Amino acid sequence: MIRAPVKAEPGDRVTPTWEGLPCAWKAVLEHSDMAQLAPVGSKGSLMDEHALQMAVDDSQIRNLLASLAIISDLGDLDEWGQLFAEDAIYTASGGMAWEGREAIVESGRERRERGTHGPGSTNRHLSGAPLIRFTGPDTAEAQSYLCMFKDLPDGGNHEGTPTTSPTLLVVGYYLDSLRRTEDGWKVSKRALVTSSHTMAFRELLATFTS
Fold first, then answer.
1. What residues pair up with 194 in beta bridges, in sequence order?
2. Nearest 5°: phi and psi at 68?
3. Which of 35, 112, 152, 182 minimizes the number of CB atoms within 10 Å of its CB?
4. Rounded to whole angstroms, how far apart are CA atoms 20 and 6?
5. pLDDT tens-digit map of 13-23
6. What stretches of the chain adopt beta strand conformation (E)?
7. pTM exceeding the 0.85 threshold for the entire prediction
8. How do residues 29-54 score in pLDDT, each as one tens digit?
């Protein structure tokens, strides 16, 4: 268990300093309602176990959200599917919806077969600035920005020019509901909300239903 390096007498109450924790965890703890005054025991102040668990969960959820983008573009589809709960629901612009992990993975497979997603497509999902809110001990919600780009062709380093540069396809955000399972945190519901998109994206979107 991590101890806050403070000196105190038994029965005192002190504010933990969170020294020794990764920076991301300290930021979560110091700016959350879990940064409460901690009671001091006979061996000094112990970090609140619930606050520590919340920091661990926050880190795991952030890794999950990052994995959704990276694996979608570069990884294995079955591995990507394991990031979703078995009964997950995925909705996207244009009224598209997929229910269940199997259907979600199949939709990804179809996009890869069309060459619009995955390795070789050069499409890149940049998902960032996740805002995570815990709604219970085993549930959470997250909102994160999305920018999707068409990168330059694979096969080497490229220097962009006014006519040969990565192309912005879409700007939007994800709304995620997450649930802790026996296999860790999973996405139980994901909604892709498009706020703006380019002609290049509309052409890409048309291939989803063609």
1. 172
2. -55, -40
3. 182
4. 13
5. 444 444 444 45
6. 13-14, 38-41, 44-45, 84-92, 96-99, 123-136, 139-150, 167-181, 184-197
7. no
8. 454 444 443 444 434 445 588 889 99
